Give the backbone structure.
Amino acid sequence: MAHETLTLTRDCPRVPVAPLLRHLGACVDAIQWVGDRDLLAAWQDCERADWMLWLAGKMCDQSGWPTRRQVVLATCACAERALIYVPLGEERPRLAIETARRWARGDVNVTLARVRAADAADAAYAYAAYAAYAAAAARKAALREMADLLRQPQTWR
C-alpha cells in the first residue's frame, strides 16, 4: 500500500478475506458480513470504521499494510469526529488526539512514552467508538462516515 495507504491497490489478492479474519480473531459478525468478499471488495463495501481500524491495526507494519504511525493518524482522524460528544471544558480527549498525531507525524518532542502517558491511542479509539455509539439513531451513519473517511488517502498521512 506504499504511500497512498489503505486505499488498497487493485493488485491486492482477489481471494476471500474471511480466513484471514478468522486467523486474526475477528468477531463472528465481521466474518459473517465479509462472506466470500476479497479484501478490496470488503474494504470498499465496509461501513464499520471500527472493523476497518481493527484490521489495519492487526496488519500494520506488514507488507502492503499501513505503518503503526499511519494507523494512529487514521484513528485520530476518526476520533476527532467524536469530540462533539465530549463535555464542554474537557480537554483530555483533544489533547490526547493531538499528542498521538504529533507522535505519528514524527515530532521529536513527543516520545511514545508521552503518548502512552496521555493514553492518546486508547483515548482516540475510545472516543471514535463513543461517537459511533453515542446516539442509537446516529450509530450506523457515524460508522459509515468514518469508514468513508478511512477510504481517503489523506486520512492516513
Summary: Residues 120-133 form the longest helix (14 residues). Residues 18-156 form one domain. The mean pLDDT is 81. The chain has nine helices and no strands.
